[in-house]
């Protein structure tokens, strides 16, 4: 009886001893969230090296106007928190009429006073719809932009115009965006984007999009830019809109609100005598 009564505690000790290595292994296993983040970061870094970036095949000088075959739609918190949002790779870019404005405005250098950063293909400035006489760089945008209206296919021509402010007593002038029906014969060159929604990549927090500059007469691709963004987290109270804080690669523009314009104008060079 005594021997039998001690067998159960002994067996329990043996089982406990065998379980210790398993418990230790479980303790060091990464959580599913951490595993997802590590896998996503590795894939993001691979895509940045092997896929993302700018490719220019041909340039065209003295371009007055272009066609925007698509305009980035307005977005808000619902889109910025949606893991499957198509526009996630360009979450910080201007949208709607502001997107159109980026193609029409002047590019001005970053800096002030006597300290200005020259505008180069790898160091871009910011877009302003008003000419700034004191700035050392006032690179013009396009004189006009034709837009194909989604859903109807109607074509509109947008341009910037300066108009006196009716309520101003000191002659204040506003720069406004004007729209009128586009001529039947539109510009030869256009800008198009394709947002990619790849479920396997989205599951790891990756989003991508490709912008193409096209010769609409020959259907030739003159250049393309592929952007990637990656966020390690899903929407949560600390970061409810992860796409706004995501890491990005693929563009040489430091600013985020006009990356498409600052890619397109490296291929379709706007006429300077604006």
Instruction: Indicate the overall shape.
Output: globular
Enumerate how many helices there are, as a single number. 6
Q: Give the averaged pLDDT, no decimals.
A: 86
Q: Regions with pLDDT < 50 over 5+ consecutive residues? A: 1-29
Percent in strands: 25-35%
Distance between the termini: 105 Å
Give the number of DSSP strands: 16
Main β-sheet, in a few words? 9 strands, mixed
Portion of residues within helices: 25-40%
SSE ordering:
HHEEEHHEEEEEEEEEHEEEHE
Radius of gyration: 27 Å
Would you summarize the structure shown here?
Helix content is 25%, strand content 31%. The protein is α+β, with helices and mostly antiparallel strands and 274 residues long. A hairpin with a 6-residue loop joins strand 9 and strand 10.
What this model shows, in words?
With 274 residues, the protein is α+β, with helices and mostly antiparallel strands. It has one domain. It is 25% helix and 31% strand. A hairpin with a 6-residue loop joins strand 9 (144-148) and strand 10 (155-164). It is globular, with a radius of gyration of 27 Å. The termini are far apart. Residues 1-29 have low confidence and may be disordered.
Keywords for this entry:
274 residues, alpha+beta, 9-stranded mixed sheet, 3-stranded antiparallel sheet, 6 helices, 16 strands, 25% helix, 31% strand, globular, disordered N terminus
Structural topology:
Elements: H1 2-28, H2 32-50, E1 53-56, E2 60-63, E3 65-68, H3 77-80, H4 96-104, E4 106-108, E5 110-112, E6 115-117, E7 126-128, E8 138-139, E9 144-148, E10 155-164, E11 173-181, E12 189-196, H5 199-202, E13 206-215, E14 220-230, E15 247-249, H6 259-264, E16 268-270
Parallel strand pairs: 2-16, 3-9, 3-12
Antiparallel strand pairs: 1-14, 4-7, 4-8, 5-6, 9-10, 10-11, 12-13, 13-14, 14-15
């Amino acid at each position: 009886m005594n021997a039998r009564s001690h067998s159960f505690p002994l067996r329990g000790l043996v089982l406990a001893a065998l379980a210790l290595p398993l418990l230790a292994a479980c303790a060091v296993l990464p959580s599913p969230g951490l595993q997802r983040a590590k896998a996503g970061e590795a894939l993001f870094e691979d895509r940045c090296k092997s896929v993302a970036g700018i490719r220019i095949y041909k340039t065209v000088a003295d371009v007055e106007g272009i066609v925007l075959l698509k305009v980035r739609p307005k977005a808000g918190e619902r889109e910025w928190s949606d893991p499957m949002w198509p526009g996630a790779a360009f979450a910080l870019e201007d949208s709607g009429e502001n997107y159109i404005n980026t193609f029409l405005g002047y590019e001005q250098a970053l800096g002030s006073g006597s300290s200005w950063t020259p505008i180069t293909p790898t160091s871009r400035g910011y877009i302003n719809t008003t000419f700034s006489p004191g700035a050392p760089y006032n690179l013009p945008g396009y004189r006009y932009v034709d837009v194909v209206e989604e859903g109807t296919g109607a074509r509109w021509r947008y341009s910037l115009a300066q108009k006196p402010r009716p309520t101003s007593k000191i002659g204040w002038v506003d720069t406004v965006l004007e729209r009128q029906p586009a001529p039947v014969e539109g510009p030869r060159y256009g800008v198009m984007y394709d947002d990619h929604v790849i479920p396997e990549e989205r599951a790891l927090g990756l989003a991508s999009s490709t912008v193409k500059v096209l010769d609409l007469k020959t259907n030739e691709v003159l250049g393309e830019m592929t952007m990637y963004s990656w966020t390690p987290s899903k929407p949560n109270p600390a970061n409810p809109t992860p796409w706004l804080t995501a890491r990005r690669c693929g563009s040489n523009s430091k600013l985020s609100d006009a990356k498409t314009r600052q890619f397109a104008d490296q291929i379709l060079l706007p006429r300077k005598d604006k």
